[in-house]
Design a protein that fits this description.
This protein is of the alpha/beta class. Strand 5 and strand 6 form a beta hairpin. Strands 13, 14, 15, 16, 17, 18 and 19 form a seven-stranded mixed beta sheet that branches. Strands 1, 2, 3, 4, 5 and 6 form a six-stranded antiparallel beta sheet that branches. 52% of the residues lie in helices and 17% in strands. Helix 2 crosses helix 4 and helix 5 packs antiparallel against helix 6.
Length: 1031
């Protein structure tokens, strides 16, 4: 309610109160009284004064009442209706009727008059143009255009235009639209468009819309010139449009409130105006509707509509009768309406002023109530209003009594409220004290937590540094133990001593494996696990994993084989060291927990995109099996399925945890499937995501139409070999017994498709396969020569290493036996890793052999040799050259601060025939590298005075300044937690090996340096070396 809002703002204007009260009293007076009566009950229990007041109200109801609402309503309603309502209504209706009739009549008269004037003017101007078009000289020139006729015609045209008033210029075009003559005062259009000529020929007359120029409005008329019913030219005249403008803009008869619009239809929905309206010169077109549409349809009349400015007007319309021209006369009635509205507003204002004057008489008590309410709101609880008189009591008097009662109750309630506020304030003060203590306690706890966090971070850092240092300190003596043990094993010792040293080497390698697992687990827990991205051969990694574990599998009497699907790519980008670590762990567990049967590794494509591929790997064994209730313990640190297995098989319980974490780091996962029964085994699955090479050009070998027979008593191994040979486009069959092999050989020979090669397992059902070899020696015709050469080469990194080392050339697995004849049967013996099998092959006359698990690169080489598809061994000159390069002595600088490690390096280098110089720290290494030239530098990383990183940086700087030869530097690091591998390469070193030193790997490294193939090679992670050492 506006009254209450004004009171709340503290307004003391009596006029304001009077106006607002008047407006509200007309509609809500009765409601206000009811509200006042309810409020007197709802506020609280009435005191004695309120009871007395209620009695007074009851007694006063019997007196004469005169409501303010009634007074104001009667007075204002009577005044307004009488003074303005009825007269205004009658005046408006009558005036509107008369004005509309008068306007209609006047508009019809004006439109009729203007129509005749426009029609007469336009006909007159077109007649004048027609007279010029019929001039004889002009027609003659258009018929026969010669120079003499042109001069006469041009003179005739100028004369005709000059004598006709309002004609400004003229031009004559021939029937093709080309300008032939003109008045010469201006430069007309030189050529008329064909569509313009066609329009003029059709209508014989064309009127151009007026356009504004510097001299005023100008329009043109185009007339067709005919001679003997044939169009010979077009006359184009420009006319002063001043008279036409005065006719359109003439306001005579429109009393200054109307205007004349003349238009011509343009399209289906638009009317083009001859001249823009007076009130809006920017309008040139109007929509085709209303009066304009009626006039275009040939009708005449009066219409009420909205004009172009949105004003309601009366429009008289009729056609002009000239080329579909229409006219429309607007007569706005705004002036009359404005006069009537102003009159009504004045009369209403007088009524309002009279009501305000009357309301002021009643606003003084309301003003008093407002001031009292404002004072009460400011806290003055003793404020009261004066009571009204007993005579002629009205609602205001009742309101005063109710207000006094309300003020009394508010005063009582304020006292009660103040008492409660004091009590609540005391409670809040006590709560604030408790909260302040709690806040202080929390701040103290947060400070302690922050200190504990700092202590934990420092402890974690100390743990990492401790593990790194312990790795260095433990690996250093292990380096001496392992390498000196291997040196002793290479000397002449008794069998008993050899057995003892084997135990020492095994124990040291087992300890190294435990250290590696613990360090890997610590790196994973610390979030410092690093995954490399490098190009590598997936086939080589899988073959490497099964090769290093083949001896353990053979010793346990197990069949170890692998299967790779044909769609799995060989060259991918990822971390080969970590992948090999997972393989070795899972395959090692399979061998460890399997008493008999086999361990099978498989690889297949799970998903792939344009840039990446996800490969699914599995390691399946036929061992003990894992109960489903125990499978959840497999991937928990330091836990095993059965605690008794730790005593039987050993292990820390970290291998599977580390493998699962590595699989997750490579974007995959690991899980296990097992029925929990012995001899049914378990299958460990894991996935890993790798990047695909943009251009992979791996060529598979092809032995097209070659027939091969695989004889193997192990079903899985036999099926894998048969599938592999079929992928190489061979016709392959498999059999598990000697008798079955004989039957297939005989059957194939009889059918005219004998076998070209036989792949024979050395041991069939526990006995050797010499029976089948003897059989084939007796019947060599069962095997036919393979005449088709291989069509593609298949080289991998393993084969290149095979061809590049003296060991593989002179001592390879498929070397020729001297005891056999020059022409050997194409039999490939599948042997174990035991050298006894190789000796047995020579004894029974088998020239070609390879060990199981079969490596693809070696099998391809043996197949080509057996099928006579390539040279079997290099010539003597090449072999001697390789032998000489491998035997070249190197001059090596050994930088090592530990005396034991120095002795290990010295013994190994002397054994291999290399010369060396010792340096105890990095400073000595810098001095000695500048004094003499070395072929290679073996640099320890952690040394006193000057460490390996600083020494390498100084040596590289000296080489750069002196433009000297770059000496290869190999780092020897025993750290495993601080990422020394990448740090070594970034510091300028060429390669790094981990301690304890692997004698075989170090010898291969030195051989590569001797052959000149060391520079630019990328070696795998040191984790691969660790795996190879403890397997």
């Amino acid at each position: 309610m506006q009254y209450e809002s004004n009171m709340s703002r503290g307004c003391n204007c009596s006029a304001c109160f009077g106006l607002e009260w008047r407006s509200n009293a007309l509609s809500v007076s009765a409601v206000d009284v009811a509200y006042s009566e309810r409020s007197s009950v709802d506020i609280g229990p009435p005191d004695d004064n309120s009871s007395e007041f209620s009695g007074n109200i009851t007694r006063n109801r019997k007196t004469l009442r005169a409501s303010i609402c009634l007074k104001l309503t009667l007075f204002v309603g009577f005044l307004v209706v009488l003074a303005s309502g009825i007269p205004a209504l009658v005046f408006w209706l009558k005036a509107h009727e008369q004005l509309v009739d008068e306007i209609d009549r006047r508009l019809l008269t004006v439109s009729t008059l203007r129509q005749e004037q426009l029609k007469d003017y336009l006909i007159s101007e077109t007649d004048k143009a027609g007279l010029i078009a019929t001039r004889v000289l002009i027609n003659n020139y258009l018929s026969n255009q010669i120079q003499n006729n042109r001069t006469l015609a041009e003179f005739d045209l100028v004369s005709a235009v000059s004598v006709i008033s309002d004609f400004l210029h003229a031009a004559v075009y021939d029937s093709t639209g080309k300008l032939v003559i003109s008045t010469g005062v201006f430069e007309p259009q030189s050529v008329l468009q064909p569509e313009d000529i066609a329009s003029i020929q059709f209508n014989r007359l064309k009127f151009g819309y007026p356009s504004r120029t510097s001299t005023g409005w100008v329009y043109n008329i185009s007339s067709a010139i005919y001679r003997r019913q044939r169009l010979i030219g077009v006359l184009l005249t420009w006319i002063n449009a001043t008279k036409l403008e005065r006719l359109v803009y003439d306001g005579t008869g429109l009393q200054g409130t109307g205007e004349l619009l003349v238009g011509l239809p343009e399209g289906a929905n638009t009317v083009r105006l001859l001249f823009p309206p007076l009130h809006d010169p920017n309008i040139t077109r109007l929509p085709l509707d209303g009066a304009m549409a009626e006039a275009i349809n040939g009708e005449t009349g009066i219409k009420r509509q909205w004009d172009y400015n949105g004003v309601k007007v009366i429009a008289a319309y009729r056609p002009v009768g000239f080329m579909r021209w229409v006219q429309e006369a607007y007569a706005p009635v705004r002036n009359v309406r404005l006069v009537i509205i102003v009159t009504i507003v004045v009369l209403v204002s007088l009524g309002v002023m009279a009501s305000v004057g009357l309301a002021k008489v009643f606003t003084s008590p309301i003003t008093e109530l407002g001031r009292a309410a404002a004072s009460l709101g400011q806290g003055n609880m003793q404020t009261r209003v004066r009571k009204g008189t007993l005579l002629l009591r009205d609602e205001i008097s009742d309101l005063k009594d109710i207000f006094n009662s309300m003020a009394q109750q508010i005063s009582s309630h304020q006292l009660i409220l103040e008492h409660k506020v004091r009590e609540r304030t005391l409670d809040l003060a006590r709560a604030n004290d408790g909260l302040a203590k709690e806040v202080e306690e929390r701040k103290r706890i947060e400070g302690e937590l922050e200190k504990a966090k700092d202590v934990a971070i420092a402890a974690n850092r100390s743990k990492s540094e401790f593990l790194a240092n312990m790795s260095h300190e433990i690996r250093t003596p292990l380096n001496a133990i392992i390498n000196f043990t291997e040196l002793c094993l290479g000397t002449q010792i008794t069998p008993e001593q050899h057995e003892y040293l084997d135990y020492v080497r095994f124990a040291a390698q087992h300890l190294l494996r435990l250290i590696t697992d613990i360090l890997d687990f610590s790196k994973i827990e610390a979030g410092k696990l690093e995954i490399e991205d490098m190009q590598f051969s997936l086939f080589d990694q899988i073959e490497h994993a099964v090769s290093v574990l083949a001896a353990r599998a053979f010793k346990a009497g197990l069949e170890l084989c692998y299967r790779i699907d044909a769609d799995v790519p060989d060259l991918i980008i990822g971390d080969p060291g970590r992948l090999l670590q997972i393989f070795v762990n899972l395959i090692g567990n399979g061998i460890k927990f399997t008493k008999e049967g086999e361990v099978v590794i498989s690889a297949s494509v799970k998903t792939q995109t344009e840039d990446s591929i996800e490969i699914l790997f599995s390691v399946k064994d036929t061992g003990l099996g894992i109960p489903e209730s125990k499978q959840s313990l497999l991937f928990k640190a330091f836990s095993q399925v059965d605690s008794s297995t730790q005593r039987v098989y050993g292990g820390t319980g970290l291998g599977l945890v580390i493998s699962a974490k590595l699989a997750a780091a490579m974007g995959g996962e690991m899980w296990v499937e097992s029925e929990g029964t012995e001899n049914r085994g378990s299958t460990f699955w894991f996935t890993a995501r790798f990047q695909k090479l943009q251009q992979s050009t791996t060529n598979a070998p092809s032995f097209k139409d070659a027939h091969a027979l695989v004889v193997d008593d192990n079903h899985t191994s036999r099926c894998i070999l048969v599938d592999l040979l079929k992928n190489w486009r061979m016709v392959a069959d498999g059999v598990d017994t000697v008798e079955g092999a004989k039957a297939l050989l005989h059957k194939a020979a009889v059918s005219g498709h004998p076998y070209n090669v036989v792949l024979l397992d050395m041991w069939l059902n526990g006995t050797d396969a010499s029976e089948l070899v003897d059989f084939l020696h007796m019947y060599p015709s069962l095997l036919a020569n393979y005449s088709q050469p291989a069509t593609s080469a298949f080289y991998t990194s393993e084969q290149m290493k095979y061809n590049s080392t003296k060991k593989n050339v002179l001592k390879g697995e498929e070397t020729e036996s001297k005891s056999t004849s020059d022409v050997s049967l194409p039999i490939i013996m599948l042997t174990s890793v035991n050298l006894i099998d190789v000796t047995r092959c020579k004894e029974i006359g088998i020239r070609f052999h390879t060990s199981k698990p079969v490596r693809r690169s070696l099998l391809v080489r043996v197949l080509k040799s057996a099928l006579h598809a390539q040279d079997e061994v290099p010539d003597e000159g090449q072999a001697s050259q390789i032998s000489e390069s491998l035997g070249r002595s190197l001059h090596i600088l050994v930088v090592e601060d530990n005396v034991v490690n120095q002795k290990v390096a010295v013994k190994l280098l002397k054994k291999w025939g290399h010369t060396f110089v010792l340096a105890c720290n990095g400073a000595e290494a810098i001095d000695k590298s500048t004094q003499e030239a070395f072929d290679l530098i073996l640099m320890d990383v952690q040394m006193p005075v000057c460490d390996g990183f600083e020494a390498t940086a100084r040596i590289r700087e000296i080489e750069k300044n002196n433009n000297g030869r770059r000496t290869p530097i190999v780092a020897m690091t025993a750290h495993a937690m601080s990422g020394d591998g990448d740090r070594c390469i970034s510091a300028g070193m060429d390669f790094y090996v981990s301690k304890p030193l692997n004698a075989k790997k170090l010898q291969e490294l030195l051989q590569s340096a001797a052959m000149g193939s060391f520079r630019g090679r990328h070696y795998s992670s040191p984790y691969c070396d660790d795996i190879t050492k403890y397997v």
